[in-house]
Structures are given as structure tokens and as C-alpha cells.
Amino acid sequence: MKHRKINKISICGCGWLGLPLAKHFVSSGVETWGSKQDPEKAKTLAESGIRGVALSLPQSLNEPAILSPQIKQFFNTDLLVINVPPGRNEGAADDLIAKIKQLSETARALGCQKVLFISTTAVYGACEGVVEEVTEPCPNTLSGKAHLEIEQYLLAEWGREVVVLRLAGLIGPNRHPVRFLSGRQGIENGQDRVNLIHLDDCIAAISQLVHQWSPHQVLHLASSQHPTREEYYSKMAQLAGLPLPVFTASLDRNSKVINAEKTCQWLSIELAHDSLLSAPPEL
């Protein structure tokens, strides 16, 4: 089936991932819209060539007719990238589900053609061993359960016009878990394997997806390197000149390993940051 070319992209959530993603598409000559909750911050997106809109969920999205012309233009797009993390307050998971469902309905009513939902490998939760794209999810956290419910809803609503991209733990500029583990004592599960993906590789995968819409509706991304938590975070602390974390003695159990080989093949990409142990953390 042929899909029309994507000339306009709207990114719901221009944060740590969404903002550099939007800047990438601007640099590629794609008409790019982006949303921020704060109206003043939304205005600053124009400095990067992004057409910013203030969008705070939930709004009266269930009444599209009364939305501002700017919001209507945001949703009338070739591709809507939904990149909205859950909040941390009580009830955040349920709020996220309701917000994304409302967002989806509004997008459909206002002319959106395709949806890319940025999900998380947390949907695999309690899975053990090698996890592939067809592995049955088994979430064991509220966030993981919420993301899986949203995935199932969007897949049912949008059919072949939605792709779910599950991302492993995100690393990149100003974001690395070693900051929270450095110097800590008695950290458990040191023999579990890490599942991480760099910001640059996320952007490359999404960019490729825009150029060639995937017939595979569920994708996931993680580096092919999976050192133990103890090995990885000790090495990162050493490279960053931080106090080493101290892990308790633990057995090597059959921990989760995200295998993204098929996704990389389907998208025809090679991960630029696949060697997790070679580069210091970008703190």
C-alpha cells in the first residue's frame, strides 16, 4: 500500500526528546509544529523554526469546533508524534490514558493522517530473557500498564496509520542514570543487564520512519550491548570522574534483554551509539 509523503509533522511534547526531534525536522526542510504546555515556552519554539502552540491537556479537545485556529492547524497534519510522559502525581497513569485518548480523537476529527506513539519498553515489565518486538508485554508498573493500554487503544483506532515505538532507557545530553547511582551503597540487582538507547539513535529511527512508513506497527529500540548494571555504571562513573556506585553481591539471573535487531533491519538503520561502554556519559 502506498502512503502519501509526510510534509508536515506535529510533535506533541517538545521536551528532552521532542525538541531536538523537531529541530531535526526543521533542518530537513519539513514543516514542523510543536507543543509546550506553557504559552511563553511555546512562543520560544519559533526561535528554532518550529511553529509552537500552547497545548495543555486536558483542554476542551472533545469540542474541536471551539479550538483556536492555531490548535486546529497543529492537529491537521500528515504525522502526529505523541511524546507525552506520565506525571508523577497520584493518578498520573490514569490521567495519561485519558489525555492520549482525547488527543487521538481530536487529531482524527481535525484531519491528522498518521500517528507515531512514543512508548516505553517498560511494557515488557516482568519478561525475562531476550525480548523481541513480538514478545507479549507483561507490565508490572503503573506507567508500563498505562502505556500498554494506550498502545492497544491507538492500534485499534488507527489501524495501519499508527506505529508504536517502544524506547529503552534514554541516555544523551544532560540525561544519564549514573548521576543518581554515583556514590550510592548497597545497590541491588547489579548482575541484571542494562537496556539503553541514545537520543541520537531515537531521532535517526524516527526520521527513517517518516521517510519510509513501517508496515510493522510495533517497534522497539535498545543498544545491542547489554553489560551488567554493575559493570556499566561503574565504568560510567569512572569515565565521568564520579564516585563509584557499590553494588551488593547478587546472582546472575535471567534478566530482560531488549533485542532491537529486527527494528533496525526494518528501518535500515545502524545505531551510532551502540557501544555503551566506550563513551563517557553526557552529564
From TrEMBL:
Residues covered by the NAD-dependent epimerase/dehydratase domain: 94-182
Gene3D superfamilies: NAD(P)-binding Rossmann-like Domain
Any Pfam family: Epimerase
InterPro entries: Epimerase_deHydtase, NAD(P)-bd_dom_sf, NAD(P)-dependent_oxidoreduct
Stretches assigned to coiled coil: none
Protein name, per record: SDR family oxidoreductase
